[in-house]
Known about the structure:
The complex is a heterodimer. Chain A contains 6 helices and 2 strands; from the N terminus they run βαααβααα. Chain A is mostly helical. In chain A, α2 (37-64) crosses α5 (104-113) and α2 (37-64) runs parallel beside α6 (115-137). The relative contact order of chain A is 0.21. By secondary structure, chain B is an alpha+beta fold. Chain B has 4 helices and 6 strands; from the N terminus they run αβαβββββαα. In chain B, a hairpin with an 8-residue loop joins β5 and β6. Classes of the chains: A mainly alpha, B alpha+beta. At the A-B interface, α5 of A face loops of B.
Amino acid sequence: xxxxxxxxxxxxxxxxxxxxxxxxxxxxxxxxxxxxxxxxxxxxxxxxxxxxxxxxxxxxxxxxxxxxxxxxxxxxxxxxxxxxxxxxxxxxxxxxxxxxxxxxxxxxxxxxxxxxxxxxxxxxxxxxxxxxxxxxxx
Amino acid sequence: xxxxxxxxxxxxxxxxxxxxxxxxxxxxxxxxxxxxxxxxxxxxxxxxxxxxxxxxxxxxxxxxxxxxxxxxxxxxxxxxxxxxxxxxxxxxxxxxxxxxxxxxxxxxxxxxxxxxxxxxxxxxxxxxxxxxxxxxxxxxxxxxxxxxxxxxxxxxx
Lengths: 138, 157
């Protein structure tokens, strides 16, 4: 068993890190005229579309159930590992694609092609983990 | 099984189209070039001047097409890649438009008006589409000094 507060912070932290790293990666690859604003602008939009639903879910659970966290309950390690693995993959996918793909539009196309599956899986996983930790706390 | 194959094939195709920036091989259109032109007067009639221009371009290994829009004849080259350093994160290429038009016969000389316009486009290494940026408008092509010298050597007095 692992503290639900700790688990929630790990998962939420992963998304936040993914969000920040994605923008850093975007700046890194587009620096020095490698991409103009016209090219970067849709990528920023895509990154926001990618992360905002995840951040909204995490924020919703996290702030609405702060009181539960204070009770110091636990969840299973397996649940945390599953959530961390799936959410981590999805949160770090944009950064990896931006750094590894040949062009920014190709990274966006690739991200788009798996967006439905990835967002659904990650959102379901987040909802599952946060509701599980919420149940564990009650 | 058939559906799986079709899915795999479409994924393969979409994967192929995701890699590598698209490239334009065809020369630009006459009207794509900026209004700014460098004017010359060369000592030849239009046909001879056209031949000289085409020979020079062929010698430089530049493919070109001639378009007639009376009274002018436009010779448009394909894009020439501009030299870049390994550290450059933006690449450029330039196409030339050479407009030839007859001039009235002065003191027994057959002269032709020749106007050169350049179109420079650039693409970031992370971009797919070539575009004209502000810095491209003032960019001088590496092929330009030689072309100018060549034209100036045939100047009409």
